[in-house]
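Folding Query — how this chain folds
Tokens — whole-number codes for backbone shape
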Amino acid sequence: MERNKSVINGYVEKVFWLIKSLLCAYVVTGILLAFITFLLYKWEISETKIMAGVMAVYILSTFAGGILVGKLAKRRKFLWGFLEGFFYFCVLFFVSYGIYHSLQNGGVNVLTVFLLCTAGGTIGGMIS
């Protein structure tokens, strides 16, 4: 019975690692998107540059979250970084789908964002 309690506590701790890393990633996202908004306000930047900036935000945010979860995990850092990027993408996808009720720009864009998010988290986890 005591062993089961410690196993459950271990899983709860790992869930908190992911939650902390996701919060970190979304704070970084907010800061970087505010910076992009400022740049758009000051200078009229083309839509392609804005989209490139948003893609960079995805990568940098999941990278930061991957570093945090990797430092917390200490083992299998790449896997925890991947999971952080995956859950970042899931939240992003479901919020976006909930707002627009459809997939914007088709499935290719969704796949690209998924790959960017998971790659950023995985690399962040590996570097931590």
